[in-house]
Amino acid sequence: MKKLIPLLLAGFGHCAQALEATPNLPPAEIVAQVLRANPGVQAAGSNVRAEEANRTRLEAGQYEWSLRLGGQQRKTNPASGPNERYNEWNAAIERPLRLPGKGTLDSQLGAAGVSVAATMHGDALHETSRALLAAWFVWLRENAAAAQWTEQVALLQKQAAAVSRRQQLGDAAHLETIQSEAALAQAEAQQTMAKVRQQRAAEDLRRRFPGLPLNVPASIAEPQPVSGSQNEWVEAILEHSHELGVARGEAQKATIVAGRAGRDRLPDPLVGIQFSRERAGEESVLGAYVSIPLPGTARRATADAALAQADAAGSREAAATQRIAAEAAGLYQSASAALATWQAGQGAGERLSRAAEMTARAYQLGEGTLNDLLTARRMANEAQLAARLLQLDALELRYRLLLDAHRLWVLDEEKHPGD
Fold this sequence. Notes:
alpha+beta; Outer membrane efflux proteins (OEP); four-stranded antiparallel sheet; 68% helix; 10% strand; disordered N terminus; disordered C terminus
């Protein structure tokens, strides 16, 4: 297993690049390095090593040799003659014997523990990848919002300067200057708040995922449609779900535990060899013995409880399958609809931007009011910002779908030697 984890992470970046380009995402090889250093992932790797040691313990079993030593003094009171005293000692070596079939189950139980731990390590990698993807897109959204408000401020600054100039020429009222300056101040306040959120999102990424390069992208990539049917994506996600793998592994492990508990209804015997020297060495005794516990209600109850726990684990596996399938179907629907939603939002933003430009020309020609122009500018800005955010939503949903299906930042799926 010591060689397995680095191999998994080493293949992390190469596989992702082989699948498709990933615009607006950090480089896959750097993502692999960041995940490798994540404390949660490292803890999951340590748990695998712990389960490997536990497998060795189960295979060896609690069947150790024990040595017993004893001493005694014998005193005799014969009817005739003096009393006699003898120093005597005895020694015995003993150990319990594992009955046939139990050793095989113990070995299977240890291997199942290692397999579950390895799957949990994969789940830790996957969940950390999910968290990284989510935090990354939070940062991208705040970047987009800050950029949009910066553009709006620049536009309103020109507008305010133009209105001020018109007032100086006597072509605009003082009220219009106040209105343009107020609109500019509001936009500047929004810009400041957007930059604060942008810095906070960047700091969150730096703290949670050290080493991740935070290079603001020059543009937002155009979302691509989701190819394939819903059933294909659901099956792919179920096939690669570590969470479902853990539930399935726990069910298998519980079944082995139940079988082992059933075997323990017949107790393991203890055998030993003993030697004693009596009457100060006049007598030597060599013997063997067997000790067999008599099974009772506790062993039967333990076996019954293990069977019930195995049934519960099977039900949890079925519930996990239903829930993950439902979540996968919902994710597919959201990712598929996000493209059309973004296209509609983009169309609205373009139309409102054209309307704002037409209103600006009308105002310049004296055919409209400044209030109409400011309203048109505000609506266009809101629509453009919404379109940018919808574009990022579509990108994130598609990447999340690819990630859950192991088509983004994919790990090399290698079997553990004990599986």
